[in-house]
Amino acid sequence: MTSCLIPLLSLPGGSEWIIIALVVLLLFGGKKIPELMKGLGKGVRSFKEGLNDASREIKDAADSAKETEEPSK
C-alpha cells in the first residue's frame, strides 16, 4: 500500500515544471505573476526574520540561564 504512494510524493521533473508554469501563466496572466512573486518574496522574508528572531531569543535565554547558574566570584 505505501509503495503506491511513493511515486505521488516525488518531485516534478523538467517537463512537468514547464507544464505547471504554462498553467500558472494561463490562470493568472502575465501581469499578475510579478505581483504574486513579490508577495511570495515578502512572505518568505518575514518567515526568515521570524526564524532569526526566535533563534536569537532562544540563544539569549540560554545565555542568561548560564549567567544565573554560574556562581559569582
Task: Provide a short characterization of the protein structure.
The protein is mostly helical. The protein is 82% helix and 0% strand.
> What kind of sheet is the major sheet?
none
SSE pattern, N- to C-terminal: HH
Radius of gyration: 23 Å
Q: Average pLDDT across residues?
A: 83
Global geometry: elongated
State the helix count: 2
Structural class: mainly alpha
Query: Whole-Å distance between the termini?
Result: 64 Å
The oligomeric state is single chain
| Uncertain runs | none
Q: Classify the beta-strand content into a percent band.
A: under 5%
Number of beta strands:
0
Helicity, as a percent range:
over 70%
Written account of the structure:
The model has no long low-confidence stretch (mean pLDDT 83). This protein has a domain of 44 residues. Helix content is 82%, strand content 0%.
Can you tag this structure with a few keywords?
single chain, 73 residues, mainly alpha, 2 helices, 82% helix, elongated
